[in-house]
Predict the structure.
Amino acid sequence: MTSPVLERYLERTQKSAAAHSKAQAVMPGGNSRQAGYWAPYPLTIERAQGTSLWDLDGHRYLDLINNYTAMVHGHAYPPIVEAVERQIRQGTGWAAGNPAQTRLAGQIAERVPSVEQVRFTNSGTEAGALAFTIARVVTGRQRLLMARYGYHGSLLEFECGSFGREGPATYLARFNDLADFEAVLAEHGNEIAAVFLEPVLGSGGVIPAAPAFLRGVKAAAHKAGALFVLDEVLTLRFAPGGCQAAFDISPDLTMFGKLIGGGFPVGAVGGRAELLRIFDPAEMKVFHTGTFNANPVTMAAGEISLGDLTPERIARMETLCLRLKEGLARAAGKYGLPLSVNHFGSCLNLYFSQTAPESSIVREDAELVGRFHLAAMNHGLFIAPRGMIALSTVYSDALITEVLERADDALCDVAGELGGTLWKRPTADAIP
Ligand SMILES: Cc1ncc(COP(=O)(O)O)c(C=O)c1O
């Protein structure tokens, strides 16, 4: 079937197409990151500033995913650029302490209620692996329990669950279904080292947990002798002390990542000193090291990123996101497109169906959302292929107006394709 949306994408992104061909010769599928790929080929971005990205063909995009929430202050945020430049001139890594790591760890411990101490890694995935290691050492057990369609990183033990499959080390239960978690823990509790949960399913489709569900799972995990690990890699952006402060839940361990690196690779596990002491060289129960752990550049950037994420900025992003949600719903209605929007704080997920599915992994609208994704790019909007949006603190009311105008054009194109040709914008008086 011909698709004017696809044709327009192919025509306006020829330099990205050529770059992708070259990349494919030297990297499998042309990349190192599934989330940076979409069919027929992803854009190649040359530079980024504030809310904007520019591709090789010179087109500007308003970035509505912000490296999957990590760039919470947008791109090349001047205070981070300054701090990083200063740090780079002073050196970028050495196998000894650096003052910035102590300051960032202190900041995290001050903001996040359950955290007394922090251990840094280079990604959220590594933070998950480390939390699982701690749980295995502390409990002597080898398996984990997580939500079906939850996401804790690109590790086989977590990924099978993200796609809805149990694995040799992984049990699953339904998100927001306390009885299901209790049943798995009652049956297999003596094998389970830890229960991992996101307080808001991020890649699963922006679905908040009921606080009572989180508290219930924690109690059931403890009854079974397992640790309760809260994954705040994404959700730290929703409240100054993370969702655990907002929801009043105190996990044994917390995973961090994304925004605490200020745009640089990062992860961390936080928790009570009594649990993290297994890494203390005085005890040396677990050997954990990493060439780039807590490297001074990431730490300097992270300090600014976290420090500048004030309650006022979090609230403003939420207000703007709500406006975006309402505007998108209105525009979709105008073109007769079904649209459901999951929303929490500064994030949302779009579904071209009457109701949102249990997860963005299992959805009826995969083709339609893919088409909207390309149409959005044709009109200069950069969103996640699965329809996720995450704002940054540098968005303004005027920029949201611009996003809504561009989204209107993209929705118009998608609606037009459903009729077989590129849809002509209705005149104002033709709109009911
Ligand atoms: C909730 C959650 N946990 C863990 C991770 C993994 O982090 P990273 O991509 O830094 O390995 C992510 C990344 O998207 C995430 O959203």
Summary: The chain has a mean pLDDT of 95.
